[in-house]
Amino acid sequence: MDCEAKLWLLVLFLFSSAMHCAIGEPQVPCIFIFGDSLSDNGNNNDLATDAKANYKPYGIDFPDGPTGRFTNGLTSVDIITDLLGFDHYIPPYANTKDSNIVEGVNYASGAAGIRNETGTHMGQDISMGLQLEHHKDIVSQISTKLGSDKVQQHLNKCLYYVNTGSNDYLNNYFLPQHYPTNGKYNTNQYAVALIQEHMTYLKALYELGARKFSLFGLSLIGCVPHGKNGSLCIEEQNTAALVFNNKLKAVVDRFNKELPDAKFIFINTAIITENSFKQDIKILTCCKVGSSGQCIPNEEPCLDRNLHPFFDEFHPSEMVNKVLANMAYDAPVPAFAYPMDISHLVKL
Question: Which positions carry the signal peptide feature in this UniProt record (predicted)?
């Protein structure tokens, strides 16, 4: 094992050992989660799609086994939910029948993105636009429960966790055999188009009562193991992600000035995960994967899962999710979270 890989393992150990513990009442009354497979906890289970993870070995380290989470254990937003003091995880929109929706809902969907067509070559998914429609439904139900005079006051205090955009590249722009976007836009033009559409959804959430927004940037998507050999990263894809991130960070500045009483923060996922995503590809993945890059059903994964940055060829292991969640919640350096981290955002 080379020195860089050894450093990565040391960083993982230190961060996981120092994981925060929240005690007492939750720091926010509710969390609403928007995004893709990095946050999906079951919304895709009954959809006609290949993008689902409700089978072993996914969930091998999760108390309830496979749930639809695309990792071996907890997702980043699960861990942030713990850090915020909740004694349960936020339920998926697809399974809210017996849940307390007043405390939040998870709308995230594997393969989905900002654009409606993103990921559809794999089957059905729930795009950001459709996730917004689902949220309107939930807000209506919460209004019935709390009363129209109290619903806005309640929603103003919630955390809105938004982690989307990766699939608009990996399952759209960089798949020209399925989508025309690569031929219609250069990298900068595509980022502009994505951000403009994303802004309409964020503004719509604001109009529905959202005030505390945590916007996650893209990781180094050019270094995910799928389709790679050795330690190769595709710099064109990494550059595209960084262009998107810079524009998303600019949205934070703009909306903090333009939208009264709102507070937006940007989580710099690319910097936080840079060391883990640039290791030797041979040691990255843990489960045996098929042509899709997802785990083959019922195949035994590796035993040393804490030493593998990725569980399958697209999705981080729980250990990396712990690092990202802890750094997003309580950033040790300003570069990780702008203009503040989640722990400070929720206190506003």
Answer: 1-24
